From TrEMBL, chain A:
EC numbers for this chain: 2.3.1.234
Enzyme class, UniProt record, top EC level: transferase
Entry keyword Acyltransferase: yes
Domain of life per record: Eukaryota
This protein's name: tRNA threonylcarbamoyladenosine biosynthesis protein kae1
Keywords: Acyltransferase, Transferase
UniProtKB/TrEMBL annotation, chain B:
InterPro entries linked: CTAG/Pcc1
Family under the similarity heading: Belongs to the CTAG/PCC1 family.
Highest taxon, organism lineage: Eukaryota
Official protein name in the record: Transcription factor Pcc1
PANTHER family associated with the record: EKC/KEOPS COMPLEX SUBUNIT PCC1 FAMILY MEMBER, EKC_KEOPS COMPLEX SUBUNIT LAGE3
Coiled coil feature spans: none
One biological process term in Gene Ontology: tRNA threonylcarbamoyladenosine metabolic process
GO cellular component terms given for this protein: EKC/KEOPS complex
């Protein structure tokens, strides 16, 4: 029963996970609660075994520590890398303890090879290389996007969905074909999460636990839809113009305060209404390009992965579109949609089972790595 | 490469417990190329001065030689090296096989 440890650090979340792949005949796996820093986690979640491909898995440990920068700021590579260096050994130790595995039980050490931020990826890669040598275990370099997709598939049991991968660093619509996760559409400039996070800075919205989470809570109390550009370009989307415009609105709010009122309802414009406006606009764009991809491939399942995938409004809007097409939406909770180590362990173990190895001298990291660069030879 | 092009240099010797640890550290650190073309770096394993006997087993010191075009580039590069070295040492200290075994 292969076991892998996975280290993830491409952005401000440092994740360490230990996963076990059980042969299909064993009894249903249980998932222990994962102690991590998010305040709003829901630790009760049963996941199903899919009838087709993804193997039954046991999450032996899934720990994460997030580097949160002060309100009004974002996380910079240098500080983020320093955070990961401070926490990586501690998290690995805790994960091994929680998983109750010894070094000899582990089959491979998996780490995020890319894409992501350079310095943070580097800190984690160094730790992985050290573990691989000291423990005498093979190294597996994993593509971050593929990690998200494989974890989403396994946790939800979705068989062959169109995947919407949305996070602070990535926005892609993906469909599987002939051993590759092919990118059907993507953000042309900045990721949707990046747009949300940078908007949060202008209004000094807290980054704890994540700016997007706080925008979501504020948006629940907003209902005025102001006008923002809507930038869908065929299969792709663009957010930088929307960000520029919504930042203008935020500055206007700061200047005019409650004297700025909505012309239709007379309600004073507030942070809540701005958050609502931004979410409704960008999420509608994402639903549109996802639907376009579904029409192209004739799929009716959607799997949402990535940090922005935690957003319940996005899940709801996607659900409305999917049910109009007699389809369904699959999403995971924040243990898995926010960057984590278990997805790296999982995707890495899938590759290891096919004989894939990353030689030590090739265990570099890279800021840019396309999702379709990876040969998905564990699927047919 | 002409030494005069990279006049600012520094040698950092890190003494480790044994050859295995020194070699592990070197192999982990040498994977990443230096980011700047204004900096040159070489790694080697050297023996302690008072050591005798088998040469390879006595190479317990990780020697890193930096040379750069300016002192500023040298400082930036060496600082980065120190940060990575910190991770290397901490993993050795807390996660090596013997350490984990004794804790379990």
């Amino acid at each position: 029963m292969p076991i892998a440890i996975g280290l993830e650090g491409s952005a401000n979340k440092l994740g360490v996970g230990v996963i076990l792949h059980a042969p299909p005949s064993t009894s249903s796996p249980a998932s222990p609660p994962s102690p991590h820093d998010s305040a709003h986690s829901d630790d009760e979640s049963a996941f199903r075994q899919s009838k087709s491909n993804p193997p039954p898995v046991q999450i032996l440990a899934n720990l994460r520590h997030t580097f949160v920068s002060p309100p009004g700021t974002g996380f910079l590579p240098k500080d983020t890398a320093a955070h990961h260096r401070r926490w990586v050994v501690r998290l690995v130790k805790q994960a091994m303890k929680q998983a109750r595995v010894q070094v000899e039980d582990i089959d491979c050490v998996c780490y995020t090879k890319g894409p992501g931020m350079g310095a943070p990826l580097g800190s984690v890669a160094i730790a992985a290389r050290m573990l691989s040598q000291l423990w005498d275990k093979p190294l597996i370099g994993v593509n971050h996007c593929v990690g998200h997709i494989e974890m989403g598939r396994t946790i939800t049991g979705a068989e062959n969905p169109v995947v919407l991968y949305v996070s602070g660093g990535n926005t892609q619509v993906i469909a599987y074909s002939a051993r590759r996760y092919r990118i059907f559409g993507e953000a042309l400039d900045i990721a949707v999460g990046n747009c949300l996070d940078r908007f949060a800075r202008v209004l000094n919205i807290s980054n704890d636990p994540a700016p997007g989470y706080n925008i979501e809570q504020l948006a629940k109390n907003g209902k005025v839809l102001l006008e923002l550009p809507y930038a869908v370009k065929g299969m792709d989307v663009s957010f930088s113009g929307i960000l520029a415009r919504v930042e203008e609105l935020a500055h206007r709010l700061e200047k005019e305060g409650s004297s700025w009122t909505d012309s239709a309802s007379g309600a004073p414009i507030s942070k809540e209404h701005l958050c609502f406006t931004l979410q409704e606009t960008v999420f509608a764009m994402l639903v549109e390009i996802t639907e376009r991809a579904m029409a192209h491939v004739g799929a009716n399942q959607v799997l949402i992965v990535g940090g922005v995938g935690c957003n319940e409004r996005l899940q709801q809007m996607m659900g409305m579109m999917a049910s109009e097409r007699n389809g369904s939406v699959y999403a995971t909770d924040e243990r898995f949609c926010i960057d984590n180590g278990i997805m790296i362990a999982h995707a890495g173990l899938l590759a290891w089972e096919m004989g894939f190895r990353t030689k030590l001298e090739d265990s570099t990291f890279t800021q840019r790595s396309r999702t379709d660069e990876v040969l998905i030879n564990w699927r047919d | 490469m002409a030494a005069s092009e990279f006049p600012c240099s520094l040698v950092v010797d890190v003494p480790l417990l044994d050859h295995r640890l020194a070699s592990t550290a070197m192999r982990a650190l040498q994977v990443d190329a230096e980011l700047s073309p204004l900096v040159r770096r070489t790694f080697s394993l050297v023996g302690r001065e008072d050591s005798a006997g088998d040469e390879e087993e006595n190479s317990t010191i990780l020697r890193t030689e930096y040379s750069a075009t300016t002192n500023r580039m040298l400082r930036v590069a060496v600082n980065g090296f120190m940060e990575s070295l910190g991770v290397v040492l901490q993993v050795m200290e807390e996660l090596d096989v013997d350490v984990l075994e004794s804790k379990s």
